[in-house]
TrEMBL record:
Gene3D superfamilies: MetI-like. It comes from the Bacteria. InterPro entries: MetI-like, MetI-like_sf. Belongs to the binding-protein-dependent transport system permease family. It is a multi-pass membrane protein. The keyword Cell membrane applies. Residues 84-274 form the ABC transmembrane type-1 domain. It is found in: Cell membrane. This is Carbohydrate ABC transporter permease. Pfam families: BPD_transp_1. It comes from Plantactinospora solaniradicis.
Length: 289
C-alpha cells in the first residue's frame, strides 16, 4: 500500500474545508449588504405608494406607480430645485474648505515647530468630546451679530474646519511626509506656503479628498443647524425642504419619502463616480495609521 495514501485521503477534506470559508464570508457580506440597502429600497417603495400602503399589514414590498406624481407634488409644494442648488453650494464649499484648511492646520501641527503646538493640538482633539448641540446657542449669537442669519454663509463658514479633519490630516501629514524632503525644499529657498501647496498637499491629496467627501456628505445631511438659522424658503437646503413637506398635524409618508429619495439620489450618483476612490483613500489611511 502506498504510504502516502492516508495523507492523500485527507486532502479532499482539507480542500472542502478551505472552500467553505469564502461561502461563509459571502453569506455574511450578503446579509450586511441587505441590511444596508433595504432601508433605501423601502424608502423608494413608500415613495411610489401612499401612507395607507406604507402602514398596511402585511407590508407591500414591490414598488407602486405613483413616484412621478409624488415627485411632481414635491416640486410643487416646496422650492425643491432651489433647495438642491443651495445644498450643492453649501456642501461643496464645506467639502473643499475642509480638504484645504484642515490639511493646512494638519501640516502646521505635524511639521512646523512653534510654542504650544502640542497643547493647541490637545485642545483641538478635546473639542471632539463636546456635543455639537452645545455650540448651537453661542454659534447663533455670533451669526446674529454678523448679520448672517438666514444666509448660506451662516452654514458654510462654521463648517469649513473641523476638529476631526485637523486630526485626520495631521496623522497623514506625519506619516506621509519625511522631514528631509521639507529641509531640502527650504534649502532651495521655498517658503512655508510653497512647501505646503507644492510638496505636502499633493502627497496627502487622497486623504484630503476623502475628508472633503466626508464634509460634503455631512453638510448635505445636516438638519439641526440649517433648521435653526434659515428662515426663508428660498434659502432652504434639501433637509429643511423635506421638513417643509410635512403638515403640522399629519404626515404624508409617500410625499415625505419621495422628497427623501430625491434628496438621497445625488449622493448615490456621487458615490457611483467616487466610491472606489473613497474606499481606496480610507484603506490607505488605515494602513498608514
Amino acid at each position: 500500500m502506498n504510504p502516502a495514501s492516508p495523507t492523500t485521503g485527507r486532502a479532499p477534506h482539507r480542500r472542502r474545508s478551505a472552500n467553505r470559508v469564502p461561502l461563509v464570508v459571502y453569506a455574511v457580506l450578503g446579509v450586511m449588504v441587505f441590511v444596508s440597502v433595504f432601508p433605501l429600497y423601502w424608502m423608494f417603495v413608500v415613495a411610489t405608494t401612499d401612507s395607507a400602503t406604507a402602514t398596511s399589514l402585511p407590508p407591500h414590498v414591490l414598488p407602486g406607480g405613483n413616484f412621478l406624481y409624488l415627485a411632481n407634488l414635491v416640486f410643487d409644494t416646496v422650492p425643491f430645485v432651489q433647495a438642491l442648488v443651495n445644498s450643492v453650494i453649501v456642501s461643496t464649499a464645506i467639502g473643499v474648505g475642509q480638504a484645504v484648511l484642515c490639511a493646512l492646520a494638519g501640516f502646521a501641527f505635524a511639521k512646523l515647530r512653534f510654542a504650544g503646538r502640542n497643547t493647541l493640538f490637545l485642545i483641538v482633539v478635546l473639542t471632539m468630546t463636546v456635543p455639537a448641540q452645545l455650540a448651537v446657542i453661542p454659534q447663533y449669537l455670533i451669526m446674529s451679530k454678523l448679520g448672517w442669519v438666514d444666509t448660506l454663509q451662516a452654514l458654510i463658514v462654521p463648517g469649513l474646519v473641523s476638529a476631526f479633519g485637523i486630526f485626520w490630516m495631521r496623522q497623514h501629514m506625519g506619516s506621509s511626509i519625511h522631514d528631509d524632503l521639507l529641509h531640502a525644499a527650504r534649502v532651495d529657498g521655498a517658503t512655508t506656503w510653497q512647501i505646503f501647496w507644492r510638496i505636502a498637499f499633493p502627497l496627502v491629496r487622497p486623504a484630503a479628498f476623502v475628508l472633503g467627501l466626508f464634509g460634503f456628505v455631512y453638510a448635505w445631511n445636516d438638519f439641526l443647524w440649517p433648521f435653526i438659522v434659515l428662515k426663508s424658503p428660498e434659502r432652504y437646503t434639501v433637509q429643511i425642504a423635506i421638513k417643509a413637506l410635512q403638515n403640522s398635524r399629519d404626515i404624508d409618508l409617500g410625499l415625505a419619502m419621495a422628497g427623501s429619495f430625491l434628496a438621497t439620489l445625488p449622493l448615490l450618483v456621487l458615490f457611483v463616480f467616487v466610491g472606489r476612490r473613497l474606499v481606496q483613500g480610507i484603506i490607505e489611511g488605515a494602513f498608514k495609521g
